[in-house]
Description:
Elements: E1 9-12, H1 13-29, H2 34-62, H3 69-90, H4 99-107, E2 114-117, H5 121-124, H6 130-138, E3 147-151, H7 155-166, E4 172-174, E5 203-206, H8 215-226, E6 234-237, H9 250-258, E7 260-261, H10 276-284, E8 292-294, E9 316-321, E10 324-330, H11 335-349, E11 356-360, E12 363-367, E13 372-373, H12 381-398, H13 408-423, H14 425-434, E14 459-462, E15 465-468, H15 486-496, H16 501-513, H17 521-540, H18 547-566
Helix pairs in contact: 1-2, 1-4, 2-3, 3-7, 6-7, 8-9, 12-16, 13-14, 13-17, 15-17, 17-18
Amino acid sequence: MIVYGDFERREDAADVKACVAKALRHAGRLPAGIDRHAALVGAFTRAAELVQGIADAEFGRRGRDLRSAPQSSGARLLLKMAEAIDLSWTNTRAEAADHGTLVLLLQEIHFDGLIKTRTGEGFAHYALYPESYLEAARSSGLAANSCVIGIRSIGIGLGALVAAALHAAPAISVRPVGHPFDRKIHADRDLLEEKVVDRSVAFAIVDEGPGLSGSSFASVARWLLEQGVETHRIHFFPSHEGQPGSSASPETRAIWDCVTHHPASRHDIVFHSRGLRHWVGEKIGPVDGDLRDLSCDRVMAAPVCPPEDGRFARRKLIAHAAGSRWLVKFAGLGDVGQRKFHDASRLAAAGFGPETVALCHGFIVQKWVEGRPLDESCVDRNAFLRRLGDYLAFRARRLGGSGPGASLQKLGEMAMHNAAQALGTEAAALLERRLASLDVLHDRVRPIRSDNRLHAWEWLITPGSILKLDGLDHCEGHDLIGCQDIAWDVAGAIVEHGLEHREVVALCRRVQAAGGATPDPDLIFGLLPCYLAFQLGLWATATPAGPRAKALANTYEESLVRCLRSDICGTPVRD
C-alpha cells in the first residue's frame, strides 16, 4: 500500500542562503532564553537543507560524492553553528553566538542555481532533537580525531552536531543510492584522506533510523570495510535503540550486530533537567510536578475512540501550571513549528481550536479543553454541518499559503496501486477509467493547508461550541497527501460523515457563503475514490494492527468497491 510520501522542494540556492542569513540575524536579536536557542536551531536546520541540496546537486552531476569547495564551506558553517547550539544548550543564558561570523561563513558558500531540499523528517515529525546527538556524542568516549560521516539528508546536520561535541573536524556526507533495502555508496576514497590507514581514527556514522531495512547505515559501514577499516573502528549514531526492521538483509543484521551503537534516544532531552518542563515554565509559569506522556490524543469512549496507529503519532504531554491543565504537543523545529503555531493561534482566535499560548522549542502549548467526543447520533446534524462548512471556509480563506502536496497524478497512481493491492487488477482498471479525466483538472487545483482528517474522533463537543482537534499536522505529515485543494476536505467530509447529495450541496454553499473558495464539483467527484484508497492503505498498514484499524480498513474497502461499481459514494456535486 502507498501511504508515505517525501516532498522535495526546488529552490534557488541564493534564496535559501538569504533565508538562513535572515534567521541568524533574527536569532542574534533575541534575548537569552529558550526562544533564542530555538531560533538558532531553526537557522541550523535550514542551513543543513542548503548544504544537503548543494551536495546532492553535485552528486547528480558527477555520479558520486567528492570533495568540493562549496561542500567544504558548508561543512565548516554547519560545524560552527553546531558549536553555537552546543554552547547555547549547555547554558541558554550564555552570551549569544557571534551571528555575524556565522553569516560571513554562510557567504563563503559559493553555489549558483537550483537545488532540491528536503525537510528533515525527525525535526518536523518525530521530535528528534539536535541536542540529543550532542549528548550522545559527548558520552561516546570517541576522540577528537574521529572521522564523522553524516548520511544525507538529515544526517548532514546531525553529523555536524556529533563533530561539534567531539571537537572533531567538519563532518563529511554521503548519499546512499539504489534500492531502498539495498543501498550502496558511490564516493571517492579521497573523501576519507589518510584516515583509513590511521588505526587510531574511529568512524562515526550519523543518521536518523534505522528504518525498515537499516540499509543506509549498513551501506556506509560496508564502504568503510571494503577500504580496510576494522569493525571495531566503526560507530553508529542512530536516533533510537531498535534494530533494523523486517526488510533488513542478513548482511545488514550482521553488520548491525558487530558495530558499536550510540543511540540519541538514550539522551531524551524532553525530560532533561533543562528540557521541556523548564521551557514550558518559562512561558506559562512554574510547572507543578512532572510532565505526563500521553499515548492517545484523548481518552474517548466507543464508538468514537480513535484507532491506534503509532506511525504518525505526535509526541504529546500534559502539564499542570497556573492552576490549569495544558496540552504540550510536538509541532516541529524551525519554520515548521512556527507555521503551525501561527495556524493554531488563528484557529483558536476564530473559535475553532483550543486556546494556544506558546511555542516552546518545537512544542505548542494549548489549554486543555474538557468536552465529549462527537457522536453524530446525539447532535443536531444541520448545526454540525454548518460548523463544518464554516471551519472549511476559514481554512480556505486564512490558511491558504500552502506547502508541498501530492499532484492529482500522484493521487491517482496511489489510488490505483492501493486498489490493485486490496481488490485486484480488475478493480484497479475500473478505477483507472474512473480517474481518466482527473489529470485534466490540475489547472483548477488551489492548494491550501488542508485539514486532511475530518473523522468523527477529531471533533470535541464543548459547552456552546464544537472544536476541531488536531487540525495542524496532517497537511504537513509524513504521508503522501500534503497540502490539497479544499475539494479534498469536502471529499473527506462526504466519506467520514456520510453526506447525502443535498447535504454536500449545502456544505459547499456554506463554504462559499462564509468566504471560502467555492469547492470545485468535478474535483470533489474525482478525489472521492482517491480519498477512499488512501484511507484504505493508511488503516490496512496501521501499526499496531489493532481491531479498530482493521475494521476501518474493511469499511473503506467496502466503500471503494461500491464507488467503483455504482458511484454510490459520490456523484458530481451540482445543484
